[in-house]
Amino acid sequence: MVHIKTDTQIEAMREAGRVVARILTRAREVAAVGVTPRRLDEAAREVLSQAGAASPFLNYKPHFAPTPFPAVICVSVNDAVVHGIPSAEPLRDGDLVSVDAGALLDGWAGDSAISFTVGEARPEDTRLIATANEALAAGIGAAVAGNRIGDIAHAIGTVCRDAGYGILEGYGGHGIGRSMHEDPSVPNEGRPGRGMVLRHGMVLAIEPMLLAGGLDEFRHDPDGWTLRTTDGSRASHAEHTVAITNDGPRVLTAL
What we know:
The protein has a single domain, classed as Alpha-Beta Complex (Creatine Amidinohydrolase), CATH 3.90.230.10. 28% of the residues lie in helices and 24% in strands. By secondary structure, the protein is an alpha+beta fold. A hairpin with a 6-residue loop joins strand 6 (173-175) and strand 7. This is Methionine aminopeptidase.
């Protein structure tokens, strides 16, 4: 079931989104060569505590997971695409880091992700990250009342495929509201003019996940959470929580 939010509820979700934006900003500030992903998780916990917010990630256990997720953010490095558990291994010069964060505030959720490099960036990684952001922007641009879910999917997929990148198979965006994952699903590739009609009050997490090697396949780490490219190529993840309004898409997780 798709839950339509009132304008007041969208405003409440915006407050949760601001907390998520602060988490990602802080994680980016803390991240550096020699810093561990666990330190980024600690910084995220500090932001949540200061805001009086909770994490929808911590102890989350979907059907596929062998254990509850043990952190408040996902930190995926290099060939890890998404769902990386923050580790104690220090970041190295040139690492490509994706951070996915969420917050629950006053009963409403926000969800967003960014990718960046620490130290000296490889040109190919800079292009990959820029394309993920471009795909996200294209998806948001298509999130217009009267359009359909397929229009978002087509906009994202076109940017990714034209750049020669793979798209994480079977994964995409989702509705969001009282919980982090709601209906509908939002694929990262599809046909325009197909799928559910977008209405004022729908709120979606739009999130392209790009694989540099051009393949769509992935493999699971032994931890049961981390998804990695099968060819060892790097990956990039970008995400915003977006409200569909009659005045156009509204990004709720922007700083």
